[in-house]
Amino acid sequence: MPCTQSQGQRNLEGYVGFANLPNQVYRKSVKRGFEFTLMVVGESGLGKSTLINSLFLTDLYSKDYPGPSLRIKKTVQVEQSKVLVKEGGVQLTLTIVDTPGFGDAVDNSNCWQPVINYIDSKCEDFLNAESRVNRRLMPDNRVHCCLYFIAPSGHGLKPLDIEFMKRLHDKVNVIPLIAKADTLTPEECQLFKKQIMKEIQEHKIQIYEFPDIEDDEDSKLIRKIKERMPLAVVGSNVVIEVNGKKVRGRQYPWGVAEVENGEHCDFTVLRNMLIRTHMQDLKDVTNNVHYENYRSRKLAAVTCNGGVDTSKTKNQMTRSPLAQMEEERREHVMKMKKMETEMEQVFEMKVKEKKQKLKDSEAELERRHEQMKKNLEAQYKELEEKKRHHEEEKSNWEAQQRILEQQKLDASKTMEKNKKKGKIF
Amino acid sequence: MKYLHQLKGEGARAVPLAGHVGFDSMPDQLVNKSVNHGFCFNILCVGETGLGKSTLMDTLFNTKFEGEPTQHNQPGVQLKSNTYELQESNVRLKLTVVNTVGFGDQINKEDSYKSIVEFIDTQFEAYLQEELKIKRTLHSYHDTRIHACLYFIAPTGHSLKSLDLVTMKKLDSKVNIIPIIAKSDAISKSELTKFKIKITSELVSNGVQIYQFPTDDETVAEINSTMNGHLPFAVVGSTEEVKIGNKMVKARQYPWGTVQVENENHCDFVKLREMLIRVNMEDLREQTHTRHYELYRRCKLEEMGFKDTDPDCKPFSLQETYEAKRNEFMGDLQKKEEEMRQMFVQRVKEKEAELKEAEKELHEKFDRLKKLHQDEKKKLEDKKKSLDDELNGFKQKKTAAELLQSQAQQAGGSTTLKRDKERKN
């Protein structure tokens, strides 16, 4: 097996050239093109479509492609529009997901559900595409950022705002915005912002945090920006001339609220953050955090059968489902082996028992048979003895009889002789 | 509540921008992210011992890498891998150099390629396992997959060795192969041209797919296609420096002249460095991931029985795939368990029948014996009876005889008495 050694830092004695790697990455990414999906959520009339148009300096919603705000909705819809924009040789496929009808009903319970369903279904699509055997280039349609529009009441968050953000902050990058900020004075805006942030912290809502960039200059900027959260924005489709300059803004009798004026609203901050500096990070967080959460939840449900035993589940999480099945198979094989040996043992024991019984039975029968045989033999012997005895007696008696007979004969002979001799007197 | 997707137009429609939005910074954002994360590159050097693999690596990366040169007495091919952390301006590179130790040294080289293939597959497998885990950390995973394989061809000047052809054929679907002619300062220019042509035609006729520098990106298409024509690169490596003019250059000094490593007239070292590191490093990484790894993954998953569509050619969702696999797997286990049980039941039955048979035989045996015994007993009884009869007969005879005798005696006794009486008188 190969051995790996980490040798640590090395100093190079001359230019090698891998410092050119970033350029190679740059080149390839331009060739590939980029994609981004932005979701906007908020009640009707908060200027969502206008803000999108202002952000991307285009008429996403125009006469030919009317925005959702011009249609009356009875239920919450989730609609996506895909556009292709090019700038400086860079191609971006932008998907805007709108949620008309959100918060517009009298009873808004569960109006976030269609939003959640949409986000989940995009994650599901990606998961399925990623898990195929034959994988092709997978389009990334996952929602990378969700701009949540807060009505400029000046007081605080509405229950619906809190509910929505609580339910979505672990599924997507949520960036709360104060909409139509030109209805608030700077002081009112400050207080409003403070109140909102307080409530966000109270409810433990995790909104998207712009991470620090290494560059010192930029990090100062970022800290400044973080103090401005949530960003208060104004959008406009109209270009007005102010002091000889053409700007996007909203014309009032008392003046023009300029969209891109940092003193008027935080639009520029939003645009810079969202598009110019943190677009990639939003995608990365979506991929590395939100999607991975979705995926692990989904796979855990499939393979751990609901994960009843938490200690076991923790272990399973560190494995792939296939490794999990492999482990289960190994366990099962061991279990079967054990079962087999147990059964084998029982079997052997029972066979031994039975055989023993048979043997005992045979021995018993054998013994009895022997016994009977012996008995019989004894009887035979006895009989023989008796017979012999009798024979002996008989022959004795017969011998005796013969003697007696002889005697009798002799006696009678003598008598005859004596008679003849006249000795009988 | 319902949600529906409405795609406005087919795919994405192009829209013009009314100003500078700023997403043309996306490539830079991506590059910054990569630079912060650091890069990693893994090179595999395949070639016989003594072809200057380590020296070439040192020369390419302007540093002295590892230890002593290896002996020729290795029993098999081993892969030794070393990881180094290099930095050039702000780019950090984690470089892993893998060397084949003992390649070409054995008498029987049939299995030489095996350990190399195994090593490459092991790295793929590790990545696949990580990718399949439920809780995974892909973005911080140290990628050990081989991005480039430098195949060192011995400078015979004639043709490729059969070991070379066999090995490259086995590797071409698993890794980007860049063939190079090692120690090419042993070959003259004219021999070199012929050698290169021979090598190229042998590779083509044997269907070996070597890595082609990509020509799809206009920025580098021209230089890449030119370089493709110079393959295989004839290289010379050296870390020794020699003074040429007023510069110190890397060179090899001979009595007849000095071979300058970085002189393009002397060898293709510069071309190799340009292609491998400065222009196509990122493409090599990309090809490894999107082509070689995908092939490995696809084969592995198909081997394990995963499919993208069910028997009715409807696409599987990930959940369905895993559940189907799991069910099949569980069913399999159940079946095995059942089979084992059945087997035992069968054995028990058979054994029981056997034992019953034995028992029956035993009983039969003893029944026979019993019968025999009965017969014997009967015989004995008969004998007894006949003896008893005889005894009785004898007794009667005896009694009768005795009776007669006693009568006779009485009669005779009286006679004797008379005689005696008469005598007396």
Automatic annotation (TrEMBL), chain A:
Q: Entry's Gene3D superfamilies?
A: P-loop containing nucleotide triphosphate hydrolases
Keyword set, alphabetical order? Cell cycle, Cell division, Cell projection, Centromere, Chromosome, Cilium, Coiled coil, Cytoplasm, Cytoskeleton, GTP-binding, Kinetochore, Mitosis, Nucleotide-binding
Record's compositionally biased regions (Basic and acidic residues): 381-396, 405-417
User: In its keyword annotation, does this UniProt entry include RNA-binding?
Assistant: no
Name the Gene Ontology biological process terms.
cell division
**Pfam families per record:** Septin (PF00735)
Q: Which GO terms describe its molecular function?
A: GTP binding
Q: Sorted alphabetically, which PROSITE patterns does this protein's record hold?
A: G_SEPTIN
Subcellular locations according to the entry? Chromosome, Centromere, Kinetochore; Cleavage furrow; Cytoplasm, Cytoskeleton, Cilium axoneme; Cytoplasm, Cytoskeleton, Spindle
One GO cellular component from the entry? cleavage furrow
Q: Residue limits of the Septin-type G domain? A: 32-301
Q: Which residue ranges are recorded for the region named Disordered?
A: 381-425
Q: Which residues form a coiled coil?
A: none
Q: Which InterPro entries match?
A: G_SEPTIN_dom, P-loop_NTPase, Septin, Septin7
Q: Which family does it belong to?
A: Belongs to the TRAFAC class TrmE-Era-EngA-EngB-Septin-like GTPase superfamily. Septin GTPase family.
**What is the protein name given in its UniProt record?**
Septin
Organism of derivation: Oncorhynchus mykiss
Q: What is the lineage of its organism?
A: Eukaryota, Metazoa, Chordata, Craniata, Vertebrata
TrEMBL record, chain B:
User: For the region Disordered, what residue ranges are annotated?
Assistant: 398-425
Q: Tell me the superkingdom of the source.
A: Eukaryota
Q: Domain Septin-type G, which positions?
A: 37-303
InterPro entries linked: G_SEPTIN_dom (IPR030379), P-loop_NTPase (IPR027417), Septin (IPR016491)
Statement: the UniProt record of this protein carries the keyword GTP-binding? yes
* Gene Ontology MF: a single term: GTP binding
Could you list the residue ranges forming a coiled coil in this record? 319-397
| Family per record | Belongs to the TRAFAC class TrmE-Era-EngA-EngB-Septin-like GTPase superfamily. Septin GTPase family.
PANTHER family reported for this sequence: SEPTIN (PTHR18884)
Record's protein name: Septin
